[in-house]
Amino acid sequence: MDDAGRLDVAKMDATAIAELYALIDSQQGFANDGLLLELCAEPSEADVIISNVRMRKRLERHLDWDIARQKAIVTPEWLRATVEQQHPVPCGEYAALEELHDETVQSCPACNLPVCKCSSSPPHAPPSTLPPTAVSAVGVPKLTTSQRILDNYKAWYACQRASPLVCPNQALATELGILRTHRDLEGKDVNALSYDRAIAIIKAFPRELTPENIDKELVQLPHVGEKIQSKIREFIRSGVIEEAQYLRRDERFQSLKAFTTIHGVGASTARTLYSIGLRTLEDMERYYDVPVDDYGNPKLEEEEPIFTPNGRRVPRTAKLPDLSIKTALALRHELAVPIPRDEVEEMHAIVMAELDQLQPGCISTIVGGHRRGKPESNDVDIVIGHSDIQNGGELIKGLCKRLVHRLYERGLVTHVTHLSGFHAHNALRTTHWDSLEKALCVFVLPEDGQQKRLHRRLDLIFAAPEAYWTAVVGWTGSKMFERDLRLWAKKEKGMKFDSSGMTRRHDSQLYFPRSEKQVFDLLGLEWIDPTLRNVDV
């Protein structure tokens, strides 16, 4: 057996903690047999969490409850017995919280067979794809981005660089972003990508570019060609880019940009609308015959109630309303309002409470811009999985559609833009889009009697346990970070990576990471904190 374990420490004095650390240190290293323990910096990476805390409220001061439900929470006696017997002992009698006894038993790394033969292993998973047993410690410093990454701003791939939300050259990045948007709206994809890459480099550059240092610094940066260099020099010299200033006043650019803020309208459709004479969103409302209220503001078409001959109201149709361009126009003022962080958290809490009524044991992570540290978000993205590693895939199959219908019946979801189910893994697919269950919908919080609740965009992503952490990684980074993550996997590691899984290309071997950090490890990348994955403007 070649097990590795991970630990979490709470409610212990320094002497007790030192003893546990010594026990783990005595088992660290790589051996051909015997026990191997690994101390983790993050509880989310652990298989086993060591704690003397016996009450939920106290444990939640140290550990998120969703994570706790996925782990074996045991007393220090479990570690002592495990080291003494040189294999993971059963966790049940060492469960620290009676409330989590069953979860502790289920998550216990008690298998004493080679990992490839253990019944808890995912079917057909080669030994090399499976993570070690882990022990994590509360009180151990949080995962941090290394100084090597912070100094690696000249790296070729965005997934090797630290990109903060606001960088020292943010005004320059914003100005270049206008040029990038213009190329994209005009269908010049190659040019738009060039600006994307240049902006990504600027976002990672750790110092302000000035007239004094630009000649030395600019020529050393990758992805910045001569044309874009000239734009950057213009900005450093004058504080603006003349072309960007012109585009801010240009009718066509402003029209196309406004049109593409509406769901269902891409750059090509926007150009078509402009070619037939539309110039403003009000023009679009008239073109799509959007109803208006007494004040001339767009409004949703109200569904007329239907009654039976004896006066009973007929329930509204079971078919989920689609978010058409017409409907998106009617909702455009609400959907354009940024979502503050506390409202994101409130939406998440309500969704998970409703989900728990359908299927207990689910876990979740808010991803997207919220996880990258944005004070406000344009939409809310939630990755959902199940704490049962062995059976979670079956438990959440079809759960996405059931949840969306439940939210719709309760008036929390009003429209759906995309709803998909699981498909079996196919290594020949160029995209894994349908190997996750997803619902892209419009959500509205229940009325609280204090303020008007606005319609919000909500994306729900359901992932089987083996794909949970790849989904978290794939939905956290900004667009260019994720693009380069896929490119790195393909070019440098011979792998195919996206939010739905990791595959080795030459033999289609699947990898099942057990933590976000392990996704980076399998890709041969150093850890980058989510708040430093803001590669786009």
User: What fold name stands as the CATH topology of the largest domain?
Assistant: Beta Polymerase, domain 2
Cα-based radius of gyration, to the nearest Å: 26 Å
> Can you give the helix content as a percent range?
25-40%
**Poorly predicted runs:** 1-10, 29-33, 111-141, 430-434
Structural domain tally:
4
Overall geometry = globular
Mean pLDDT metric? 84
Protein name: DNA polymerase
Active site: 231
Subcellular location: Nucleus
Catalytic activity: DNA(n) + a 2'-deoxyribonucleoside 5'-triphosphate = DNA(n+1) + diphosphate
Structure description:
- This is DNA polymerase.
- This protein is of the alpha/beta class and 537 residues long.
- It has 4 domains: 14-136, BRCT domain (Rossmann fold); 149-249, DNA polymerase, domain 1 (Orthogonal Bundle); 262-335, no CATH class; 339-532, Beta Polymerase, domain 2, CATH 3.30.460.10.
- The protein is 38% helix and 11% strand.
- It contains 23 helices and 14 strands.
- It has helices spanning 14-27, 56-59, 65-68, 76-85, 101-107, 147-150, 170-185, 189-204, 214-218, 226-238, 242-249, 251-259, 267-275, 281-287, 325-330, 332-335, 341-358, 368-371, 392-396, 399-409, 468-476, 479-493, 516-522, and strands at 39-40, 48-50, 72-74, 135-136, 339-340, 362-366, 376-377, 380-386, 413-420, 437-444, 455-462, 495-498, 501-504, 510-511.
- The strands form 4 sheets. Strands 6-8-11-10-9 form a 5-stranded mixed beta sheet, sandwiched between helices. A 4-stranded parallel beta sheet has the order 1-4-2-3.
- A hairpin with a 2-residue loop joins strand 12 (495-498) and strand 13.
- The radius of gyration is 26 Å and the shape is globular.
